[in-house]
Amino acid sequence: MSLTLTVDGERWRRHLLATVERHPGIVPVAKGNGYGLTLGRLARRAQWLADHASDTGAPVDTIAVGTYDEVEQAATRYDGDLLVLTPWRPFGAALDLDPRTAARVIHTVSRVEDLGDLRERHPQARFVLEQLTSMLRHGMTRRDLAAAADALGQGRSGLRGVAMHLPLNTTSHLGEVTRLINDVVASGLPTRTVFVSHLTGAELARLATSYPDFTVRPRIGTDLWLGDRGALSVTATVLDVHEVERGDTFGYRGRSAPKHGHIVVVSGGTAHGIGLEAPTGDQSLKARAATLARGGLDAVGFVRSPFSIDGKQRLFAEPPHMQASMLFVPSGARVPRIGEDIDVRVRFTATDFDRVVVG
């Protein structure tokens, strides 16, 4: 009676090992809901990858977490360093780390003033300096990097490299990355290590050739944990089935059945992320037209759900409830039996499962 993520363990583990082998210096990203697999499970699996370094030829000595609140969850399951992606600030959870864990943390610093504050509070702190990319989220400009270099002097003083968080959906990052690396060289920073996100394998290979004196460390989450979608399947359990005639009322809002069919109640609702659609980055005319169409369908109660029966996505009978959803199956279609599992399409980063089963 659950929304369940089932993982073909052998296939998934082969994919993880192959991905690490293809990306020497990889920094696995384990953050948020753990890409649907849970953060704790990913931290344990990262330790497993570290233990299999002799098989891949690529040590996994660092993982990245999203926030300081996630540090302890990962630290109890993984033995290496913990790179925090959210920039350090002189307030909040960043100041409350357990001293034993803090020694394993690599901070991200995105402002010159924070660099001075961090080093004053924690002289032994290790950190990376984040550069400002075209995302305009966090980061230092070329001038800021030069100021940071002046503050650090010739010693490394805890500096472990620079970090670049690049946007998605661009044709190529190489032009921007080249400019950013040139900014590092011009700043005089005493480092030749770059942590990067969202570069393709071809782009990483090209950088290694163009900058042989630099160590490029890819931070990889989605392509690592979810890169072989064939190893992952999501199912919901049919909890109840009710035959309805045209005009019969049902649900919280007393909606009417449009015609003869069945109301099929399945596990999975808003508490799991079902029906809570994240904004899309697709700005095409087709995507905008689809959004308008969904809005129109919602007005009359017909919205395609992520639940499929015999390969066909069925409509929500009404908006999903907290832990269950009501689907409308029209007359003539096969009606699943109570207890049967049906397929669900989800966005893994926005879904919390009742059960994760790894074979």
From TrEMBL:
This entry's Gene Ontology molecular function terms read: catalytic activity
InterPro entries, alphabetized: Ala_racemase/Decarboxylase_C, Ala_racemase_N, PLP-binding_barrel
Looking at the record, the residues that make up the Alanine racemase N-terminal domain are 19-170
Domain of life, source organism: Bacteria
Q: What is this protein called?
A: Alanine racemase
Q: Which organism is it from?
A: Nocardioides ganghwensis
